[in-house]
Amino acid sequence: MKLGIKVNADQASFTRLSEANPPLVEVWFNVNAADGYTELFDELKRRKCDVGLHFWGKLDDHIAPNIAYPDQKLIDGSIALMRQTIDIAAANRFQYVNIHPGAAAKSKVDYAKENYTVTGDPVDLETATELFLENARTLHMYALSRNVVFTVETVPARITRGWYDEKARLNPNNIYELPASAIAEAASSGLWIANDFCHTAANVITDGPDVVWTYLKGFTNHVAAATKLIHLGFVMPPYNGTDNHDELDNPILNTDAAVPNTKQMLELLKLFQNRDDVWILVEPKKNHVKNYRLAQKLLDQAFSI
Question: Considering the entire predicted model, what is its pTM?
């Protein structure tokens, strides 16, 4: 596995790159502002590290990209932005592009306010999943032709207004994003996937952490062969379908309330012990370098057992 760190096109990211000197960097990439990443991309190429672009963007009128909703204009526009991101990755000789799978409903997105607003009734899950698989395969084949790995990532069952606000988790919203089962179908059909441990665990709404762990462990085993990217995180109470971006030194990781907790993380990571084709990183809300080093210790522990 190749361990990395998350960056954006800001000065703080240059500082964390200098401090961590990671072999992998994943970029929070807003394709609508692609020209603003030139300096960062030059630095990443100078470092000769692996680079992935985590796709973000929006269409006209703040419509969120979506390849799973039966609106041809929306699908065409979304695919165009994703293809543009793949082209940018290829032009810079970056390694992968990662996307979220889309949703059964159409939404508007406001990145400044960290909020999605559903704008219409959802379609049935089967219709949305079929569209997602069809369009993801198109993008997968296009990425292959550009020598770029294309991954689709698990997402939580619910979302909050304020993505990094722990209090917001008490008021979750459903924007009908596709469940992890759709990602499992993608894996079974030959596509590559990104398993965000926290997002996958947040597919389960329950009172019991054992139920969450059973699901996460089973899913991770099932899709392991198709997994190219891992976001190393965990969910903690309430298990209401929302995610969190906490840090790897949270004491809760030493208890059964966190899923996966430290022991469970080690068990999951061992599945990838001999995989040199998998990238992994942490997405904390702060202290990226510290969490990068904590993740390195976890990997060392997992692979030395």
Answer: 0.97
